[in-house]
Amino acid sequence: MAAETGWSLNPQLAKDTTPVGDLALCRVVAMNAAGFPWLILVPRRDGAVEISDLGDEAHRLMDEIVAVGAGLKSVVRCDKLNVGAIGNVVPQLHVHVIARRFDDPLWPKPIWGVPLAPADAAEFAGFVAAVRSRLGL
Amino acid sequence: MAAETGWSLNPQLAKDTTPVGDLALCRVVAMNAAGFPWLILVPRRDGAVEISDLGDEAHRLMDEIVAVGAGLKSVVRCDKLNVGAIGNVVPQLHVHVIARRFDDPLWPKPIWGVPLAPADAAEFAGFVAAVRSRLGL
Question: CA spacing 20 to 30 A to A57: which of A3, A25, B40, B125?
Fold first, then answer.
């Protein structure tokens, strides 16, 4: 099982996101994309690339995916959660949890790989604060 | 928690895939897309749409995602697994587990939403048989 010692957030993820806070296993960060409430869970385990690298802690990852999804649904309108562990560009294991709406600009297409404009800064800050509060972070 | 009674594979998933077999929680089916070894796990729980609908069985889903990913990696060349629960088109809860390669035709883009040609029929049948054998199905 990978250790927390030595872990740090991948520089590309750090550049692209805003910190929300730390759960027991994962750092939660937010992507700023207008119209798409988008959180990313990053297990603080050095060298983890695939979910299997977490060993027994994969269950905790699942618990945190569910908790973050519930938190997201409670602060924004959401018709469907999109959950994905892709990692083709940033190899450090991370899981996207995105709130999708039937009337969002890309529905029903997946969001990954599509260039997106950032949201209004105040609106995004409000979203991050609401998620932080809801998750107790 | 959702029940197995009343569950049946969504007709669109049934049309688009080939059965591989049943694990304790999920039916495993294979998508036929040339160059992309692609399995889908469908929890046999009536009405499940989001992972949270599984309740405590979300841990079992995670175990089966890891097991199917390991099985996939053992039968094909794979540089990165792509795992996703999207469900924007087919609402029945299902999880994609796809073997990606650095030299596949779409790398590093995600595969979802891209029209793909089917593989050679014999090659696909061989893939399904190999996965079935490896997963003990």
Answer: B40
